Amino acid sequence: MNNCHRTLINFNPKDIQQLYATGYYVLHPDYLLSYRYSDGFTERLLRVDIYIDVLLRCKVNLEYRKKKGAEYATVSKQFETDMPDTINILLTQLTEQEAINLKHYYADTQMEDASQTDFVINHKGKSHNVGMGIFIKKPAPENEAEYLLFQLTAALEQWREALYKT
């Protein structure tokens, strides 16, 4: 993905997803997925938001700290980019499921100030909110939608790190 096309843009994430009084996000109907990742309390304080629309176009909001001498500077970037084919395939398979049966939160342990991943997936007019915490052992999917979500999570983790490094 180092050679992918990037176009710098400015966008407002609130135009893509809204937090409702229920405490859940509702994704704009023109979008299939939002992926939000935060390192938690780490040196780089990485935060990545990826928004994928129905035409499989990607918007990325990337923010992290970078050490400059004894000081740290915050780097913020917003851009459109191509996504890896693997993510395209997994997302398409997930959204083409007849039904999506996902839990609101997956983790097998809890730790304060740890990394957090959140998804909002539009499927048949409903926004599904899913959080991912810390796993000590590999999660065992209970259905096809969970299997695809876990595969998609792994692919997005790899891509997220590639976006950060380039």
In angstroms, what separates the terminal alpha carbons?
9 Å
Order of neighbouring strands in the sheet with most strands: 1-7-6-5-4-9-10-8
What is the alpha-carbon Rg in Å? 16 Å
Q: Calculate the mean pLDDT score and round it.
A: 90
Question: What is the overall silhouette?
Answer: globular
Elements, N to C (H/E): EEEEEEEHEEEH
pLDDT < 50 runs, ≥5 residues: none
Secondary structural class: alpha+beta
Number of helices: 2
- Number of DSSP strand runs: 10
Helicity, in percent? 10-25%
What profile does the largest beta sheet have? 8 strands, mixed
Query: β content, as a range?
Result: 35-45%
Report on this model:
There is one protein chain. The protein is α+β, with helices and mostly antiparallel strands and 166 residues long. Helix content is 20%, strand content 38%. It contains 2 helices and 10 strands, in the order βββββββαβββα. It has helices at residues 85-95, 144-165, and strands at 6-8, 17-19, 25-27, 31-38, 47-53, 58-68, 71-81, 105-106, 116-123, 126-132. The longest helix has 22 residues, at 144-165. The chain starts with 5 loop residues before the first strand and ends with a helix.
Task: Give the topology.
Layout: E1 6-8, E2 17-19, E3 25-27, E4 31-38, E5 47-53, E6 58-68, E7 71-81, H1 85-95, E8 105-106, E9 116-123, E10 126-132, H2 144-165
Parallel strand pairs: 8-10
Antiparallel strand pairs: 1-7, 2-3, 4-5, 4-9, 5-6, 6-7, 9-10
